[in-house]
Write a structure and sequence with these properties.
Largest sheet: 9 strands, mixed
Structural class: alpha/beta
CATH architecture: 3-Layer(aba) Sandwich
CATH class: Alpha Beta
Helix content: 25-40%
Distance between the termini: 41 Å
Shape: globular
CATH superfamily: Alpha/Beta hydrolase fold, catalytic domain
Strand order of the largest sheet: 1-2-3-5-4-8-9-10-11
Order of helices and strands: EEEEHHEHEEHEHEHEHHEH
Radius of gyration: 18 Å
Number of strands: 11
Strand content: 15-25%
CATH topology: Rossmann fold
Number of helices: 9
């Protein structure tokens, strides 16, 4: 199988704040303001720790939302966490950014593709990096006292690849809304194209696709993310078949899902939105994405 490729997002973040570190066990173990701690996934890859960057507004309480933000290809967790501070404050949300470091999770197979396979062999679901997000959510609830049974999910660029692929092959994941923004190319929800570009031979069972389509997955495109020669944009044939730019590929992904849902006569609960004037920029995409994520009425 081809190794997935995508460029990291170039985000502009607010000035860094003083951070608190530590294990933070017990209720409100997630400090107010900016913090970080090391999460060891004892149910998955226990030998590959994950640094988690957090932000808890003073206004957040245990009934409030939890937002998981997936980093770009550079895997830095601090920058996306800082980008989302203003929206954490605006929507009184706890934010957590798991940093799947390049040292512990090298290459796109470990991150974008979720460690679902290795050398053409399927890995146990407990060891998928997608599943690690589920394990982290339980850890966050234990540490913070959060009472909600679901979380919100966002990813930009390579993080957008992670999010939409996780939403596809892990339909039981407990997110209530997910945004995949400005991904470089997509796992198409059709059984005529080989995995990891389509569902043929994928770990998703055929009868699970209606459950995938029923979830609230929001595809976001920067209206100006239209450079066919953008640095790091995948240009191998499977990616080019989806369009020459990230903007074209996002639209192709959504229209492909619409056509497949219509062909199968099943509902599609996904959305597609364009943010005018924004290029490949997480900070520029975050405000519009936040408005959609936190509007769960």
């Amino acid at each position: 199988m081809l190794i997935l490729m995508l460029v990291a997002c170039g985000c502009t973040a607010p000035p860094p704040q003083k951070e608190l570190t530590g294990s933070g066990n017990g209720p409100m173990g997630i400090p107010q303001g900016s913090g970080q701690y090391v999460f060891t996934d004892l149910l998955g890859n226990a030998d590959r720790p994950i640094t988690v960057y957090t932000y808890r507004p003073a206004s957040w309480n245990t009934l409030g939302p939890v937002l998981m933000v997936m980093p770009g290809a550079g895997r830095d967790g601090r920058s996306p966490r800082d980008t989302w501070i203003r929206y954490a404050e605006q929507y009184s949300s706890l934010v957590a950014v798991p940093e799947f470091s390049l040292a512990n999770y090298p290459g796109d197979l470990w991150y974008n593709a979720g460690n679902t396979y290795d050398d053409n062999n399927w890995n146990p679901k407990a060891n998928w990096t997608y599943t690690a997000v589920e394990h982290l959510f339980d850890d966050l609830r234990n540490k913070s006292g959060a009472t909600r049974n679901t979380y919100l999910l966002f990813g930009h660029s390579a993080g957008g690849q992670f999010v939409h692929r996780m939403a596809t092959v892990l339909p039981e994941a407990r997110y209530s809304r997910a945004v995949a923004a400005n991904a470089g190319f997509y796992l198409l929800p059709v059984s005529t194209i080989e995995y990891p570009f389509g569902l043929k031979g994928s770990p998703l069972y055929e009868n699970e696709l209606p459950s995938v389509f029923a979830r609230k997955l929001i595809i976001m495109s920067g209206g100006s993310d239209t450079d066919p020669n953008a640095s790091g944009l995948a240009n191998f044939p499977e990616a080019e078949a989806q369009g020459s730019t990230r903007f074209e590929r996002a639209r192709f992904y959504f229209t492909t899902a619409q056509a497949e849902a219509e062909r199968r006569h099943i509902p599609l609960n996904w959305e597609y939105h364009v943010v005018p004037g924004i290029g490949h920029d997480e900070a520029g995409m975050a405000g519009a994405s936040a408005a959609l994520l936190f509007n769960e009425t």
